Here is the input.
Amino acid sequence: MHTESHDRISRRSLLRAATGLLLSASVSPLTARAAATVEQRYIAALGRVRLHGADDPETDVWAYNGIVPGPVVRLRQGESARLVVENRLDQGTTVHWHGIRLPNAMDGVPGLTQPPIRPGESFAYEFTPPDAGTFWYHPHANSLEQLGRGLAGAVIVEERDAVTVDRDLLWLLADWRLTSDGEIAAGFGNAMEAAMSGRVGNTVTLNGRVSETEPVRAGERIRLRLVNASLARIMALRFEGHRPMIVAIDGQPCDPHEPEGGRMLLGPAMRIDVVLDMQGEPGRRYAVIDDFYDGLSYPVTQLAYDDKPPLRSHPPDTPTDLPRNPLPEPDLAAAERHDLTLQGGMMGGGAMAGMGGMMSGGMMRGMMGMGGGAAWAINGMSMTGDGHAGMEPALTFQRGRSIVLTLRNETAWWHPMHLHGHSMRVLTRNGEPVPHRQWQDTVLMAPKDVVEVAFVADNPGDWMLHCHVMDHQMSGLMTVLRVA
Ligand code: C2O
Ligand code: CU
Ligand code: CU
Here is the structure.
């Protein structure tokens, strides 16, 4: 059945081996099988890329198909995909398709859903994305280092009917900790950082480059897909002189609305799709600012208008609504309720007073008494690493049940909490109803936040729930939920 594609793959592998070529060429679909399966190949290997301008040094990275970020995986809603991942690293890896509601065996969690792909081996991920939207992919093995060295890319699942905008843009934002000679700083898994904000870096890239400007044209309407692929950096984005409309969060369409105070919070692993009407003046520049950390605001880039006259005199009056995805609506009256309490970390980081502040003395006081080197726990249990055999679920749900989870952040730190295999409706935050009741797969929690989320446990299997600050996940802020 699969022979045609297998033959082609091995022929390609042979070719590659023979020429020693690196692989950007192999990104294109390999077959035009009758079933319209998209088939693509991704190779995780060492690479070298330019994160800065032409005069700055290059950086050794780990990359998919030799580029950072990895190639955009373009899929179509409701059409099957076969994504073959080949591991040319010297350690095991997997790929997790973050936010996509797929069968458990395709979820890419080593030990839990598949054995790691060993060096030299390949694994074929096969699934049909039920939801259109903006998702992303990254390893789930040695995640802190593998993601931190560059293994990440966006997944765009296209709507069945194209959305009308002038341009559809993707900004995958990533945060790197670079040394003065441009290499990635060592020291992944520093225990002190793990108990605080995680490995926040010093260089933010947009689609793999530090960006001075992004070209735009007056009057055009842009759909901009924002992805925060950082290990730990939380972003709060403002578009000077513009009024972005949020149309989707974590891939799931929402009622179009402007962000509160014009500021969009984008925690690690979160995505926001906005519609931007370019109402600025031709020839001018407008900064896009991230000012999440007090006193450390910086421009992510600038929107640079060309000199051409506006494409149209005022914004198009076509609606910005995206078609909804087929998510099952939880039955709140009949829902089963559970609490998950986040514990641990250094005390006293609550104000998050800038990165200098985070290192200040008082913080060392009283790390909570977590065993085994863990810094964090959920309901008193510290599951560490990034998925391994024998992880017992904290909760087991009967398939089809509606579930309400109360997530309590008892810590002094921010946590983007992520659930695999499902999307969660965010009901309340600190007792207040959340406007638009967004669907999210990653919910950013401020220190002491209490958030209620709801979903239908309709996807059988063992699913991770963890903080997406990678150092937090690996040092205990992780658990497993079973849908049986
Ligand atoms: Cu984006 Cu468990 O991962
Ligand atoms: Cu995920
Ligand atoms: Cu966290």
Summary: Residues 144 and 470 are 5 Å apart (CA to CA). The chain is about 10% helix and 35% strand.
